[in-house]
Specification:
Elements lengths: L1 H10 L5 E8 L6 H7 L6 E4 L4 H11 L15 H8 L8 E5 L2 E2 L4 H7 L8 E7 L5 E5 L7 E7 L6 E6 L3 E6 L6 E7 L5 E9 L2 E8 L4 E7 L2 E8 L7 E8 L7 E7 L3 E7 L7 H6 L4 E5 L11 E7 L3 E4 L5 E6 L13 E6 L3 E6 L4 E7 L6 E4 L5 E5 L5 E5 L18 E3 L8 E6 L6 E6 L3 E6 L5 E6 L8 E6 L3 E6 L5 E4 L3
Parallel strand pairs: 1-5, 14-19
Antiparallel strand pairs: 1-2, 3-4, 3-5, 6-35, 7-8, 8-9, 9-10, 11-12, 12-13, 13-14, 15-16, 16-17, 17-20, 18-19, 21-22, 22-23, 23-24, 25-26, 26-27, 27-28, 29-30, 30-31, 31-32, 33-34, 34-35
C-alpha cells in the first residue's frame, strides 16, 4: 500500500507555473531606494496560484531579506531560514501591479481577468506596500462635534484647523508628533459647515462657512487667529462648501469660491491682509468697517479691528440643491500656484459640473444617481472622488478639451467608476492624498476611516475613527505623514500613514 501511495503521488501532475518578470515601479523616484530594491528583469517561474503575499516573499528572498511574517509561501526548512535571517535586513511588504491594477487575486485568475496571455512572461511592477494607518494620538474632548477640518503645510506655519458645531475654529500643532491644541476663536453663531486654508504671504488664510449664513476669513500666524474679512451679498442660506486658491506668482491674487444650501455659487476676491500699518488701514477705510469680535471669542486680539467687507465678483444659481463640494480645476501644477480657469462642483441634486471662471458658464454637466456629500480632486488631473449616502465612493473623469491624466484613462469626460461598497453607512467625507495621485481616504457615519488605492476597487485599510460604537466620523484631512479625522465623539484623531 505504501509503494502504491508513493507511485500515485509520483504520477500527479506538477503544479502549473507561470513566468513573470519583476519591474520596480516608476513611482519609486529616489535613486538610493531604487538601488536598494531593484531586481534583475529576467523572467522566473512561480506557482500560477500565487497571491500578493507569496510574491512579496519571493521579492524579499531575491533581495536577500528576511521572509515576511505573513507570507503565504511555505519554507522548505524553517530552521535554516531563521538561522540565515538573523543577519539579513528586515522584510519589506510589497504590493504588485498587473496591467496597472493592484493584484488582489491569484496570479492566473488576475491574468485571465485582464485578458493577458500567459504564453509570455507577465510583467509585474512591485513597490513597498502602504502600511495601515497607525493611531498616534488624539486631542482632548472638545465641547462639540467636529464638523470640518483642513491641514495647512507651510514652512513655519503648519497646523491643523478644525471647525466645530459650536462655531469655534480651533488650531492644533503637530510639530512634536503629538496633537497640541493651540489658539481658538468663536467665529460663528451656528455650526461651521466648511473650512479651507491657503497660503497668504508669510501667513495662513483660513476661510469658514456656517449654518448662520456667514462666510469669513481669518489670518493665522504665530498661533494667533485674527479676523480678516467678512463676505456678504453672495448667499442667503447656509454656506456648505468653500475653497481657497492663492496665486503665488508675482502680482497674483487669492480667490475664493463658496456654495450654499440652495445651490448658489459665489466667487470672491480675497482682499490683502487687513493687519497692515495705520496708513494702509486709513486708505482702505472706504471698504472697511469697525466691528467687534464675535460673541464669546476666545481670541481677545479680535476685540476691535478694522474688518473688510467684501462683495462677490460673481454669483450664480449653479445647482438645484446644496453644493456640498468644491474644487479648483487642475491647471498643470500640483501646487496650484497660478489662478485656475475652472471650478468643479458637486451637489445634493446628484449633479457634478465644471464652470469656466472667465465666462461663469457651465462647460460640463454630469448627472449621477446619488446625492454627492463630499468632493475632492486628484492632485494631478481633473479626476474627482465623491462620497454618497449609499456607502459608496465614486470616481469621475471631469477632464475637458482633451486634457490628459495618468490616474484614470480611457473613459473620457464623465466616466464614473465606483469603488467597492465597503462602508456600512453614509460616507461623510472623501479626500485625495496631496502627494499620491492614486490614494484617497474616506470617513463614514459607520465610524471608520478607510484608505483606498484607486487601482483596486477594494480599500487598502480600514481603521476605527471613533471611540464608541454608534459614533460618526464626519470629516478628515491629510497632513504631513498623517491623516486626521473628527466626528460627533468630539475628539480629533491622528493616524500615522506612509504617504
Amino acid at each position: 500500500m505504501s509503494d502504491q501511495s508513493v507511485s500515485s503521488d509520483d504520477n500527479e501532475s506538477p503544479e502549473t507555473k507561470l513566468r513573470i518578470s519583476f519591474v520596480l515601479a516608476p513611482s519609486i523616484r529616489s535613486q538610493k531606494q531604487r538601488d536598494l530594491l531593484e531586481l534583475p528583469t529576467e523572467p522566473i517561474a512561480v506557482p500560477a496560484s500565487v497571491r500578493k503575499n507569496g510574491l512579496s516573499a519571493v521579492v524579499n528572498h531575491l533581495l536577500d531579506r528576511k521572509a515576511p511574517k505573513d507570507d503565504d509561501a511555505v519554507s522548505d526548512s524553517d530552521d535554516d531560514s531563521s538561522n540565515d535571517g538573523s543577519e539579513k535586513l528586515p522584510a519589506i511588504p510589497f504590493d504588485f501591479l498587473l496591467n496597472d491594477k493592484l493584484l488582489r487575486l491569484p496570479l492566473d485568475s488576475a491574468a485571465r481577468k485582464e485578458g493577458l496571455s500567459t504564453e509570455h512572461a507577465l510583467e509585474l511592477q512591485y513597490f513597498p506596500a502602504r502600511l495601515p494607518p497607525k493611531k498616534e494620538g488624539e486631542s482632548e474632548n472638545l465641547p462639540d462635534w467636529i464638523t470640518a477640518m483642513d491641514y495647512y503645510d507651510g514652512k513655519n506655519n503648519s497646523a491643523l484647523f478644525t471647525g466645530g458645531a459650536d462655531g469655534v475654529i480651533r488650531t492644533f500643532s503637530t510639530s512634536k508628533g503629538d496633537l497640541q491644541q493651540g489658539t481658538s476663536v468663536s467665529a460663528h453663531t451656528g455650526s461651521i459647515k466648511c473650512l479651507s486654508t491657503s497660503s497668504f504671504g508669510e501667513k495662513t488664510l483660513v476661510a469658514t462657512g456656517s449654518m448662520d449664513q456667514t462666510l469669513i476669513t481669518h489670518v493665522y500666524q504665530n498661533d494667533t487667529l485674527d479676523l480678516h474679512a467678512v463676505y456678504s451679498g453672495g448667499h442667503t442660506n447656509s454656506i456648505c462648501s468653500v475653497a481657497l486658491n492663492n496665486d503665488s506668482s508675482p502680482g497674483g491674487k487669492t480667490i475664493m469660491a463658496s456654495g450654499d444650501w440652495d445651490g448658489g455659487l459665489a466667487i470672491w476676491s480675497v482682499p490683502a491682509s487687513s493687519s497692515a500699518g495705520a496708513n494702509d488701514e486709513a486708505a482702505e477705510n472706504k471698504s472697511s468697517k469697525k466691528r467687534k469680535g464675535s460673541k464669546g471669542s476666545v481670541d481677545k486680539s479680535n476685540a476691535s479691528v478694522n474688518i473688510q467687507e467684501v462683495k462677490p465678483l460673481q454669483s450664480v444659481k449653479a445647482h438645484a440643491s446644496n453644493i456640498s463640494g468644491l474644487a479648483w480645476g487642475y491647471n498643470g501644477s500640483a501646487e496650484q500656484s497660478s489662478t485656475p480657469t475652472t471650478l468643479l462642483t458637486g451637489s445634493w441634486d446628484h449633479g457634478l459640473k465644471v464652470y469656466d471662471l472667465n465666462r461663469m458658464d457651465c462647460i460640463l454637466a454630469l448627472n449621477g444617481s446619488r446625492v454627492v456629500t463630499s468632493l475632492s480632486r486628484c492632485s494631478n488631473s481633473n479626476v474627482v472622488a465623491t462620497a454618497s449616502p449609499d456607502c459608496t465612493v465614486r470616481l469621475w473623469d471631469m477632464r475637458t478639451n482633451g486634457e490628459g491624466s495618468s490616474v484614470v484613462g480611457g473613459g473620457g469626460s464623465g466616466m464614473d467608476k465606483s469603488l467597492r461598497q465597503s462602508h456600512k453607512a453614509w460616507v461623510s467625507s472623501v479626500q485625495w492624498s496631496p502627494t499620491d495621485p492614486f490614494v484617497l481616504a474616506s470617513t463614514s457615519h459607520d465610524g471608520t476611516l478607510k484608505v483606498w488605492d484607486i487601482r483596486s476597487s477594494l480599500p487598502l485599510h480600514s481603521v476605527n475613527a471613533v471611540n464608541k460604537k454608534g459614533e460618526k466620523a464626519l470629516c478628515l484631512a491629510f497632513g504631513d505623514g498623517m491623516i486626521y479625522s473628527g466626528g460627533n465623539d468630539c475628539v480629533v484623531k491622528q493616524f500615522a500613514c506612509n504617504l
